[in-house]
Amino acid sequence: xxxxxxxxxxxxxxxxxxxxxxxxxxxxxxxxxxxxxxxxxxxxxxxxxxxxxxxxxxxxxxxxxxxxxxxxxxxxxxxxxxxxxxxxxxxxxxxxxxxxxxxxxxxxxxxxxxxxxxxxxxxxxxxxxxxxxxxxxxxxxxxxxxxxxxxxxxxxxxxxxxxxxxxxxxxxxxxxxxxxxxxxxxxxxxxxxxxxxxxxxxxxxxxxxxxxxxxxxxxxxxxxxxxxxxxxxxxxxxxxxxxxxxxxxxxxxxxxxxxxxxxxxxxxxxxxxxxxxxxxxxxxxxxxxxxxxxxxxxxxxxxxxxxxxxxxxxxxxxxxxxxxxxxxxxxxxxxxxxxxxxxxxxxxxxxxxxxxxxxxxxxxxxxxxxxxxxxxxxxxxxxxxxxxxxxxxxxxxxxxxxxxxxxxxxxxxxxxxxxxxxxxxxxxxxxxxxxxxxxxxxxxxxxxxxxxxxxxxxxxxxxxxxxxxxxxxxxxxxxxxxxxxxxxxxxxxxxxx
Length: 497
Known about the structure:
497 residues; single chain; alpha/beta; 8 strands; globular; disordered N terminus
């Protein structure tokens, strides 16, 4: 089953392609070009076959890329074990292509789904194909158009038996960190690959929202123009906040609209779209009981942004606080920088905590240091401090929470004063900072030895006889009180939804 690069070269000598790719949208086209540039021969197919002709006679001309005009032709062009990668819209289209491919393939052949698929669908598909003797890989691919072409982050999971056959291709086209390590490794069985990509996207939602809030604070409190804020972001990108999202935000803030001469960002309507991966992360966190509140708050932030007309109407009725004194610029910029970094760490901690809990529930063995390294290059959330995350998990593979690693515990302690101050300024001024606030709430909740949940559980027992545990009794013993004197001794069953 194992295929090496030499095997691929031998396959090309026989006129066979190393892999077939279905779907010639932006990601599909660029991944194919990336594969060809690394010495692989690729067969390309698209449901609208005219796109195949346009591609092979256009961007792909002169490269080791072969056009296929139906699925039987595509399959006939492939070396064994045949590898077909679907780069189509997640959902029914994936199932449709899988059903069409099954009769054309032989036991041991591999179907790969490289789209943004919800991981339970990958679990289902892997099981179905295994029963037919076929292997299935669900892989997250992050990096957008540029990453797909020059080196994305790739997160494969599914049938472990298939990994060695696709490993040379995936690791060959992936981004690489400074020491040459590819930003691609086997994640785990079942839906593990698409799950890790989903969490990546959830963290991405939070990261983007927090950067937007930092921009809003600098604009609202200091009255800075976009270009000036862009310069601040450029400076931040040379330090501990060094990341792709900070880098592109600095570029965005410096862009001037050619028609009006105004900052382009000021002309963009303040409504943000979403494709659902952040929502999946939030609902999964709720399902497994993981407190991913900053990720969820970022999803809600996009939802409230969509209520543009309502917000404009509300702004004429609902009043905020009186204008506050303008803070010292240098001091406040540093407070916001530290607040942003601490909030980012809290959001990443939530993502890794979610992966830990979900892995236990699904029977996956996730290497969190490896996940951090896969995210170190190529992907949207790539950032310098992912090296520190990898180091934390390498030092303590069973680390319960990223915040407990000595490096991050010390960082949060040193940054929390500025973090709290920046949030206080925002609250007193009425500046909307849901991600900053929820990140701090997560930190304060996680570090609290005692929370007011005793009141919640007493309330539940009062109105629903849901029982409670006592601090002076062993865990696992449950008690019920007849609070009113009118209730009986019967208690409700104890469970967690």
